[in-house]
Amino acid sequence: MDTRRFRALVVEESADGIFTKTVKERAISDLPAGEVLVRVAYSSLNYKDALSATGNRAVTGAYPHTPGIDAAGIVAESAVADVRPGDSVVVTSYDLGMNTPGGFGQYIRVPASWVVPLPAGLTLKESMILGTAGFTAGLSVHKLSTAVAPDRGAILVTGATGGVGSVAVGILARLGYAVVAVSGKADAEPYLKKLGAREVIGRDQVTDRYDRPLLKARWAGAIDTVGGEILATAIKSTEPMGLVTCCGNVASAELNLTVYPFILRGITLAGIDSQNCPMHLRQKVWARLAGDWKIASLEEIHQEIALAELAGRIDAILQGRLKGRTLVDLNR
User: What does the pLDDT look like over 175-221, one tens digit per residue?
Assistant: First the structure.
């Protein structure tokens, strides 16, 4: 039995159904079976982590549990030849942080098939400033760019101050797209303009409350991160043969639409699933995030915290009070 100790955020459920979040010591032997043991250097906070940390059974079925769907670090032990001790790696998606102890602990043990070599051009820290949110933004841009060229017109990005939205704005601007960013935060404009947005508008300007089947075409395409009425309005407002990506449902999982945008304008609605993305595409997108899509503002879109500060940030992300990315330094 491996009795080496490490620190982790542990979420526990009391007998009366109250969930608490505490940094505790755990043993390596507490981790599940897996081919690769990683000493985690950095993680990041995502909305799904906050759901896991507050007892959402659709995300995590059993407690005690350590959330964290993102992790980057150094391989400590490996049972496979192509992943070697000392390798710098990124682990995101699959079941990490959901029902498998995640990146809010200083060690994780995972299947080798979940492990991505750290791409050249990114540090471990930069990879977790991006994390699942940045990877999801990359998948969204990848899908959008297959159908919509930069000269086609404006691209709408909703939930633009969030993790996915912030990175999407930065990548699209780098690629020459005219980005119109949507935010409900009153102070968002300077931040989003610095990332490269041409225009910043409020949610009321992209929400159709009259239930019309089609609206005036305004966007060549859109990257939506929130769902609900805003996604429906984006689809109804997209130009013929445009493409809209969808990756979130924080506003609502319901989508109230007719088929008219699809059969009269040829709109494509593309779902983005970062969790089960095949490895060949996963590595391709990570390489682009480290290369020609790497945004200069990575340092500006994140706040760095220690493990002990996580509990407060989890409450903040659930309340919609965070902007950009929250990086967790596991060495602090």
Answer: 999 999 999 887 889 999 999 999 999 999 999 888 899 999 999 99
Q: What is the mean pLDDT of residues 247-274?
A: 95
Contacts for 211 with CB less than 8 Å, ≥ 6 apart: 256
CB 119 within 8 Å of CB 290: yes
pLDDT digit string (tens) for 41-55?
999 999 999 999 999
Read off the tokens for 91. Answer: 């682990």
Tell me which H or E stretch contains 13. strand 5-13
- The bridge status of strand 325-329 relative to strand 36-45 is antiparallel
Q: Work out how many domains the chain is built from and give that number.
A: 2
User: Which residues are CB-neighbours of 46 under 8 A, at least 6 positions away?
Assistant: 69, 70, 131, 132, 133, 163
Partnered with residue 239 across adjacent β-strands are none
Specify burial of residue 284 (Cβ count, 10 A radius: 0-12, 13-18, 19+): middle
Provide the residue range defining the domain that includes 27. 5-118+297-329
Do 79 and 159 share a domain, yes or no?
A: no
How far is Cα 260 from Cα 213, in angstroms, rounded to an integer?
A: 7
The pair of three-digit structure tokens given for residue 326, joined into one six-digit string = 């929250």
Contact between 131 and 139 (Cβ < 8 Å): no
H or E stretch including 242? strand 238-246
Tokens of 53: 């940390």
- Give the model's pLDDT for residue 299: 83
pTM over 0.85: yes
